[in-house]
Amino acid sequence: MTGALSLGKQMASAAVTNLTQILKKARPDIPQNALNLLPAGVEAVFDENFDSFKEVIIPIYHKYFTAAELKEMIRFYSTDLGQKTIKVMPTLMQEGMAAGQRWGQSLGPQIERRVTDRLKQQGIRI
Hints:
Elements: H1 7-26, H2 32-35, H3 38-48, H4 50-64, H5 67-77, H6 80-106, H7 108-121
């Protein structure tokens, strides 16, 4: 109901992106028509193994939520707001992760200075 199982599609897409980058790096001369074959092949493997994905995801929900809590979640996700949450959450998470990554990268120079200073105090130079 939450779309957690749609993660399989997102993982397939990420796998295609990753595989494409690896292939382009290893074989810069690889023809585009060969790369165009990747999505269907990767998605087929994910689709064929979807049941085993459910087998790993469902116990995770049971680990963190009681049966009563899951019933409340189902009730919430049946509302208009719950449906909107389901709809926007993947994009919200993706944008949030990208923002968090940019934020973390912006801290890089500060972290480098702080670590370098601390190491210097210990007589260690890098």
